[in-house]
């Protein structure tokens, strides 16, 4: 695709597969197209590897974390389970929300919690809200440990941010969805991979091998889940789509 911005004429021209369209630069459609390209260039530039939350590196697009904050505040889950801990920034962010809300705790699973990350997470002032489980997220013994932290009747939100291959995310969806309570979500993050194959730091095969396809296939087999972007709690704009690394990620349990 060829994108031409003319700030003097205030237009954006999109040339794609032989067809050409010129739209108002100051429009919802132009903002969405600019956001898509901003996300792609930002991925390449490792923008998401440039933030911390309360001292811990967090590997997330800030837009996704702000939307997640809205969901956690609205749902106030008893338990937040996240696969993929890395430096612990997202666990600490969720723990900080639990503390502020006065409810909830966080269970983090990672195949390898490096000693310096474990030490920093365990020494963090919010560690009392966090449980760390080390092992592959789909291993039987890991699933048993996660299950031991979810009591009957508790509301549960699950975030999948570990290995982002189609097969692994699908296996995680099958294994973790049983804990998700009606009205809550299981979130298959980083489906943006589907739009990154032609980006220099993207990966060959990502157009097919990505979490968004796993989420769609899971939803097709499990009618108790629908893919639904969480509602925005405040919106005085005409915009309505998340700027995100997580397209088709939010699987809501409807029954
Ligand atoms: C993208 S990072 C997680 C980022 C973190 N959620 C954050 O927001 O800062 C992905 C993590 O998944 C872990 N991982 C990879 N394969 C895994 C598996 N099979 N089970 C559990 N964790 C895995 C990696 O070790 C890595 O720490």
Structure description:
This protein has 255 residues and is an alpha/beta fold. The chain folds into two domains: 2-44, no CATH class; 51-253, 3-Layer(aba) Sandwich (Rossmann fold), CATH 3.40.50. 33% of the residues lie in helices and 21% in strands. It has seven helices and twelve strands. The chain has helices at residues 28-44, 62-75, 89-101, 115-122, 140-148, 166-176, 211-221, and strands at 2-6, 11-16, 19-24, 52-53, 56-57, 79-83, 105-110, 130-134, 156-160, 185-188, 225-227, 250-253. It has a seven-stranded mixed beta sheet with strand order 8-7-6-9-10-12-11, sandwiched between helices. A three-stranded antiparallel beta sheet has the order 1-2-3, with no helix packed on it. A two-stranded antiparallel sheet has the order 4-5. The longest helix is centred in the first third of the chain and has 17 residues, at 28-44. It is globular and about 60 Å long. The N and C termini lie far apart (41 Å). The mean pLDDT is 98. Bound molecules: S-adenosylmethionine. Residues 58-60, 82-87, 89-90, 109-112, 136-137, 161-163 line the site of S-adenosylmethionine.
């Amino acid at each position: 695709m060829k994108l031409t911005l003319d700030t003097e004429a205030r237009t954006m021209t999109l040339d794609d597969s032989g067809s050409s369209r010129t739209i108002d630069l100051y429009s919802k459609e132009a903002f969405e197209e600019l956001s898509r390209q901003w996300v792609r260039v930002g991925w390449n530039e490792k923008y998401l590897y440039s933030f911390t939350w309360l001292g811990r590196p967090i590997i997330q697009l800030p837009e996704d974390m702000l939307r997640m904050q809205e969901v956690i505040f609205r749902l106030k889950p008893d338990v937040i389970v996240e696969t993929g801990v890395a430096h612990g920034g997202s666990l600490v962010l969720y723990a900080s929300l639990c503390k502020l809300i006065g409810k909830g705790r966080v269970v983090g699973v990672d195949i390898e919690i490096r000693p310096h990350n474990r030490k920093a997470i365990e020494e963090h002032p919010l560690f009392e809200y966090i449980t760390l489980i080390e092992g592959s997220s789909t291993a039987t013994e890991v699933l048993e440990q996660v299950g031991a932290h979810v009591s009957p009747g508790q509301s549960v939100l699950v975030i999948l941010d570990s290995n982002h291959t189609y097969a692994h995310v699908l296996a995680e969806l099958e294994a973790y969805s049983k804990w998700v309570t009606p009205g809550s979500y299981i979130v298959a993050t980083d489906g943006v991979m589907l739009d990154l194959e032609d980006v220099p730091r993207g990966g060959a095969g990502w157009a097919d091998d990505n979490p968004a396809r796993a989420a769609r296939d899971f939803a097709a087999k499990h009618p108790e889940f629908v893919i639904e972007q969480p509602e925005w709690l405040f919106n005085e704009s005409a915009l309505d789509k998340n700027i995100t690394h997580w397209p088709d990620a939010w699987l809501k349990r409807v029954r």
